[in-house]
Design a protein that fits this description.
The two termini are 27 Å apart. A 6-stranded parallel β-sheet has the order 4-5-6-7-8-9. A 3-stranded parallel β-sheet has the order 1-2-3. It has a single domain (16-328), classed as TIM Barrel, CATH 3.20.20.140. Helix 4 (56-65) packs parallel to helix 14, helix 5 packs parallel to helix 6 (121-135) and helix 6 (121-135) packs parallel to helix 7. The protein has helices at 6-9, 29-32, 37-43, 56-65, 85-105, 121-135, 157-166, 179-186, 198-213, 215-218, 233-244, 255-262, 273-283, 299-307, 313-328, and strands at 20-26, 69-74, 110-112, 114-115, 140-143, 170-173, 224-226, 263-266, 288-289. The protein is built from 15 helices and 9 strands. Mean pLDDT is 93; it is low at 1-11. With 339 residues, it is an alpha/beta fold. Helix 6 links the parallel strand 4 (114-115) and strand 5 (140-143).
């Protein structure tokens, strides 16, 4: 038997379908300077190559994998940990302007979620309006709690009011666990506190807090997105609904139905077929969107996994681009031809 050429075994052919990735990160130097020691160590460009690049190198990496469009968002925690409200708002605006310039240079390949200074909710709502109406941003990404305060507190709800009025989603992304939670759960095993486990627990809990707060009854048109195959919630939703809904008579809908009606889920950072099938069986193919979590994860590995999924081509198209086009009001583009 002839041994295949090593060069040929490395040939990668992306699937002939448009691919839109929704949880793809960048870093603005002005915000990095405000980060604490932990996040500076985690997110330094030397540690995460490509995080601080939103130009030709990023486009080349997308081309190598076969990704047509990235929706960019600032990596955690953005402007959310800055105590000075005026400074936070100014840096969020600067980061958004920086991102808008990159999108303007590559308008068919890049799109944007806004960075918001959630500690000043009225300013954050105004910034969301500015970025959507003037610069064509597709929504915003909020990185978990704001100095220990969660979005179920009504002081944050002007942000949701603005998102509903503008018809754009809020992507709820993980941040480091609440300091007291980290101390109690993760101090002895700090590696558990981040992407391996703590981020998912933190975000899933945040989602349930939002549902129980009644924010979706107040803003019935509000749409949100969470990543990492649903942050454990698809697997846990049946039990959470069974225990929480009977104790929540103030809600117009069940916990389960609220989650399914208001949240979309992305594949970011979880390239596992069993987890995808579980998620699809809970939320349906119309609520799942392809994502990578670049540059923390590999574009090529994500696309390779996605292109070989044993699913109907109609469902593959929904996850690849149709659901994102609908949610973000993106113009459809013709599918690529097979190489």
């Amino acid at each position: 038997m002839t041994t295949p050429s090593p060069q040929l075994t490395q040939v990668y052919v992306p699937p002939p379908v448009r691919l839109i990735a929704l949880e793809e990160h960048f870093l603005y130097d002005g915000l990095l300077a405000t980060y604490d020691e932990t996040d500076r160590a985690l997110l330094a460009p030397s540690r995460v190559p490509g995080l601080d690049e939103i130009g030709d190198m990023r486009i080349a990496e997308m081309d190598r994998a076969g990704i047509d469009l990235q929706v960019l968002s600032h990596t955690k925690p953005g402007a959310q940990e800055i105590e000075d409200g005026a400074q936070a708002a100014a840096l969020a605006r600067a980061a958004n302007d920086y991102l808008a310039e990159a999108v303007a240079r590559h308008p068919t390949r890049l799109a944007a979620f806004a960075t918001l200074s959630t500690g000043a909710p009225e300013a954050a709502a105004a910034e969301l309006e500015r970025t959507v109406q003037r610069m064509g941003f597709k929504g915003a990404m909020i990185n978990g709690h704001t100095r220990g305060a969660y979005l179920d507190q009504q002081r944050f709800w002007p942000i949701f009011e603005a998102a509903e009025a503008l018809g754009v989603p809020i992507y709820l992304h993980p941040s480091n666990p609440h300091p007291q939670v980290f101390e109690a759960y993760y101090k002895d095993f700090p590696q558990l506190g981040f992407a391996s486990w703590g981020y998912a627990v933190e975000t899933a809990t945040h989602v349930l807090r939002l549902i129980l707060s009644g924010v979706f009854d107040r803003f019935p048109g509000l749409r949100m997105v969470i990543g990492h195959m649903g942050e454990l919630l698809p697997f846990a939703l049946w039990r959470a609904d069974g225990r929480l809904t009977p104790k929540s008579p103030h809600l117009k809908k069940s916990v389960r139905n609220t989650f399914i009606d208001h949240f979309s889920v992305t594949t970011s950072g979880v390239f596992s077929t069993p987890e995808l099938m579980c998620t699809a069986s809970v939320v349906g193919w119309d609520n799942i969107l392809f994502s990578v979590d670049y540059p923390f994860e590999s574009n090529v590995e994500a696309v390779r996994w996605f292109s070989h999924l044993p699913i109907a081509e109609s469902d593959r198209e929904k996850v690849a681009h149709r659901n994102a086009e609908r949610l973000l009001k993106l113009s459809p583009a013709p599918a690529r031809s097979a190489a």
